Recover the amino acids of this structure.
C-alpha cells in the first residue's frame, strides 16, 4: 500500500494523543519532526525507525505481514492462512507453533498477527465462544493500538493487521443493526478518500477483505443497491489487479441480494443467471485454493438445480 511517511507518523501520533515533543523526545528535534510530518524534509530512516517503534509500528519497510528475515516463516504464514480458510485445524496449530519459533515474538506486530490467527483457529474448531474470540482479538489489537482509539471517528491510519482485527471483531460481535452500522461507518470512512481519488487499486489487498464485510452486512440490512455497488467495484478492481479472492464472494453476494429482492418484491435491473454465477464462484474459489468455499458453492448449485 502507498502512504507518505510524514502523514503516517502525524496520524499515529494524533491517534495516540501525543504531542510532537512527547513523540520525538530522545529521538530528534521537535522542528525536525514537524517538518517530517509536513513532508517538507528528506526522510531520515534512522529517525523514522525509532519513531515507528515508539508508535508500535513495524520499524522497517515490510512486504509481508511478519517482521522477519526468515523466508520459512513467510511461507509458513501463507500456508497457515490457507489451512485456516479450509478449516484444517490441527495442521494450522502446527504451523502456528512453527512460526512462533521462527520470528521475534517481542515485536508487537508479530505478536498481534499470531494471537489473532490462533484465536481464529480456536473459534473455528469450537474451542472458544464468539465472545471469548472477540476478547482475544481485542487483546491482539491492543498490542499496537487501543480498541477505543481504533473505533474513534475521524482521520486515522490503521495497519493491515489492525484492520483485520477490527473486521474479525465486527463479524463475530456486531449482532444489532446499530453495532453493524458502527463498523460499516468505520470501514467506509477508511476507504472513502481512496475511492474518491480513484486509487483503490493501491490498497486492493485490504480493500477486498474489509469491504467484503461491508458489502455483506449492507445486504443484510437491506441496502441492496449500496451493497451491489461495492460488489461491482470489488470485481472491477480485482480483475484489473489480476486478483481473484474478492471476485467469488462479490458474485455470490450480488446473487444473494438478487434473491432477497425477489422475495421482497423489489424489481432489480441486474440480469443474472444463478447457475452460471455459482459456477463462476466455484471456478474462482478453486483457483484461489479455497476448497471449503468451493464446496459451499457446489452445495448451493445442487440446491438451485433441484429447485
Amino acid at each position: 500500500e502507498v502512504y507518505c511517511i510524514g502523514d503516517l507518523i502525524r496520524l499515529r501520533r494524533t491517534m495516540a494523543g501525543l504531542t510532537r515533543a512527547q513523540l520525538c523526545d530522545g529521538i530528534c528535534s521537535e522542528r525536525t519532526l514537524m517538518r517530517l510530518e509536513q513532508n517538507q524534509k528528506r526522510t531520515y530512516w534512522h529517525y523514522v525507525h525509532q519513531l515507528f517503534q515508539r508508535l508500535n509500528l513495524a520499524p522497517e519497510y515490510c512486504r509481508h505481514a511478519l517482521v522477519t528475515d526468515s523466508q520459512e516463516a513467510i511461507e509458513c504464514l501463507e500456508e497457515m492462512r490457507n489451512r485456516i480458510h479450509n478449516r484444517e485445524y490441527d495442521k494450522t496449530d502446527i504451523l502456528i507453533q512453527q512460526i512462533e519459533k521462527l520470528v521475534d515474538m517481542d515485536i508487537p506486530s508479530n505478536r498481534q498477527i499470531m494471537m489473532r490467527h490462533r484465536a481464529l483457529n480456536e473459534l473455528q474448531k469450537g474451542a472458544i465462544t464468539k465472545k471469548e474470540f472477540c476478547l482475544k482479538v481485542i487483546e491482539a489489537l491492543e498490542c499496537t493500538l487501543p480498541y477505543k482509539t481504533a473505533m474513534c471517528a475521524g482521520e486515522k491510519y490503521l495497519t493491515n493487521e489492525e484492520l483485520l482485527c477490527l473486521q474479525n471483531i465486527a463479524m463475530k460481535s456486531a449482532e444489532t443493526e446499530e453495532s453493524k452500522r458502527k463498523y460499516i461507518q468505520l470501514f467506509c470512512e477508511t476507504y472513502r478518500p481512496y475511492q474518491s481519488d480513484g486509487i483503490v487499486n493501491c490498497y486492493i489487498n485490504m480493500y477486498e477483505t474489509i469491504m467484503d464485510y461491508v458489502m455483506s452486512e449492507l445486504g443484510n440490512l437491506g441496502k441492496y443497491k449500496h451493497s451491489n455497488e461495492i460488489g461491482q467495484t470489488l470485481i472491477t478492481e480485482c480483475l484489473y489487479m489480476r486478483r481473484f479472492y474478492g471476485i467469488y464472494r462479490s458474485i455470490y453476494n450480488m446473487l444473494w441480494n438478487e434473491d432477497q429482492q425477489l422475495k421482497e418484491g423489489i424489481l432489480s435491473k441486474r440480469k443474472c443467471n444463478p447457475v452460471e454465477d455459482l459456477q463462476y464462484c466455484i471456478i474462482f474459489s478453486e483457483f484461489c485454493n479455497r476448497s471449503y468455499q468451493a464446496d459451499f458453492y457446489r452445495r448451493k448449485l445442487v440446491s438451485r438445480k433441484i429447485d
